[in-house]
């Protein structure tokens, strides 16, 4: 069996006692980030999908889990995520996939890719707007001087 490193994102921070109890109950080694909303766990399983199912099975009642995500990309360069969704949402995904003649996985993959593209576009537009505001307010020399000082720190 292979060890898989999985990041767990929680819906809220957990205290030390809650984390320790979850670790003892699940028999999984957990390491928490400083914010105690993100954990890393090493899981022995045949593949990442099974590793994630093992985590859900052992920790879903012990911790307020929001998302599981592989820490390293797979051979295809993609990360595996596991997100709990309601039956209603599941049905909407199946129906949308059926209408488009796709599998639910393909449909969801494309929807996520489109959402990420929209986010990148929105972020780029915000950056451009901010940059235009800077250029209207400050000279190019002032901007590059401030950037150089920030880099030196």
Structure description:
This protein has 153 residues and is an alpha+beta fold. Helix content is 55%, strand content 18%. It has five helices and five strands. It has a five-stranded antiparallel beta sheet with strand order 2-3-1-4-5, with helices on one face. β2 and β3 (38-45) form a beta hairpin. The radius of gyration is 21 Å and the shape is extended. The termini are far apart.
Helix tally?
Answer: 5
* DSSP, total strands: 5
Major sheet: arrangement of strands: 2-3-1-4-5
Largest β sheet strand count, sense and barrel closure: 5 strands, antiparallel
Structural class: alpha+beta
Distance between termini? 46 Å
What is the mean predicted local confidence, pLDDT?
A: 92
Shape: extended
How are helices and strands ordered from N to C? Answer: EHEEHEEHHH
Radius of gyration from CA coordinates: 21 Å
- Low-confidence region ranges: none
Fraction of residues in helices? Answer: 40-55%
Instruction: Report strand %.
Output: 15-25%
């Amino acid at each position: 069996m292979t060890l898989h490193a999985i990041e767990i994102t929680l819906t809220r921070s957990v205290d030390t006692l809650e984390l320790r109890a979850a670790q003892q109950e699940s028999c999984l080694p957990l390491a928490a980030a400083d914010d105690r909303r993100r954990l890393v766990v090493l899981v022995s399983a045949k593949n990442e999908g099974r590793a994630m199912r093992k985590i859900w099975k052992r920790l879903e009642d012990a911790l307020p889990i929001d998302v599981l995500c592989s820490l390293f990309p797979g051979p295809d360069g993609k990360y595996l995520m596991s997100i709990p969704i309601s039956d209603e949402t599941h049905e909407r995904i199946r129906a949308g996939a059926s209408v488009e003649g796709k599998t639910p996985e393909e449909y969801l993959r494309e929807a996520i890719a489109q959402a990420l593209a929209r986010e990148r576009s929105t972020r780029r537009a915000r950056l451009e707007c901010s940059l235009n505001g800077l250029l209207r307010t400050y000279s190019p020399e002032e901007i590059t001087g401030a950037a150089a000082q920030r880099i030196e720190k």
